[in-house]
Amino acid sequence: MTRFKYILFDFDGTIADSKAVVLSVYNELAVRRGYTKIQAHNIDMLRSLSIKNRCRELNVPVYKIPFIAAYVIRQYGKSLHQLAFNPGIEDLLASLAKEEMPYAILSTNAARNISGFFQLQNVPCPEIYTSSKVFSKHRLMKKFLKQKKLRPDEVLYVGDELRDIIACRKCGIPVAWAAWGYDAPEALIVNPPDYILNTPQDLLQII
Question: In the 8-state DSSP scheme, what is residue 12?
Fold first, then answer.
């Protein structure tokens, strides 16, 4: 029997294929602010970098990230109709429901965007836990653990970014990295995940 009592999912890149929307909004802002745009010739290189080095390449001050993230999230809601589940995710969520494995979304996107996406996809929306603080996801995780009265080792977080792994390490939650998401494997060399998911169905083998 699995030791995990709850699965937490990141949203962007993990559940939803939102790359095109996020890049479009960022590039619109980049033109106005003088940042380097993310394009076909530099996107693979950027995916392999830490956030700090990514900012250096894009000429974006690190302290501006929370403001950029807030802008992207505000604009994001206008493009929900352009989003889709990543391949295999909808089947995975159905399998978890069938196995009566509780799961929730824990993200730094806005709850209204996440719930709106599930509504447009005509899929039951799970519990949603959000925070607008890009680098404080670990605090949200700790709040979740306290609310659900769970130990860190009873929860598995599924995310696609290095910051997801770092957040999990700060609160002791095991983490599975979604290889189909935003960050490339090279970005995780110093901070490897506990599990690697090459496809969403790989999660079922773990739990």
Answer: B
The domain spans of the chain are 6-17+84-206, 19-80
* CA pseudo-torsion sign 152, 100, 163, 197: positive
Q: What is the pLDDT of residue 2?
A: 64
What is residue 132's predicted lDDT score, i.e. its pLDDT?
A: 78
pTM for this predicted structure: 0.92
- Is the Cβ–Cβ distance between 72 and 35 less than 8 Å? no
Report CA Rg, the chain.
Answer: 17
The topology under which CATH files domain 6-17+84-206 is Rossmann fold (3.40.50)
Q: Which of 166, 171, 157, 172 is nearest to 203 (CA)?
A: 157
Could you give the CA distance from residue 168 to residue 152 in angstroms, rounded to a whole number? 9
Angle of the 137-148 helix axis to the 162-171 helix axis, nearest 10: 50
Separation between Cα atoms, residue 163 and residue 6, nearest integer Å = 20
Strand order in the sheet with 175-178: 127-130, 103-107, 6-9, 155-159, 175-178, 195-197
Per-residue pLDDT reduced to its tens digit, 137-169: 999 999 999 999 999 999 999 999 999 999 999
pLDDT tens digits, residue range 91-106? 999 999 999 999 999 9
**Residue 1: strand, helix, or coil:** coil
Give the span between the Cα atoms of 129 and 107, in whole angstroms. Answer: 6
13: left (phi over 0), alpha (psi -120 to 50) or beta: left
pLDDT digits (tens, 9 = 90+) for 41-68: 999 999 999 888 999 999 999 999 989 9
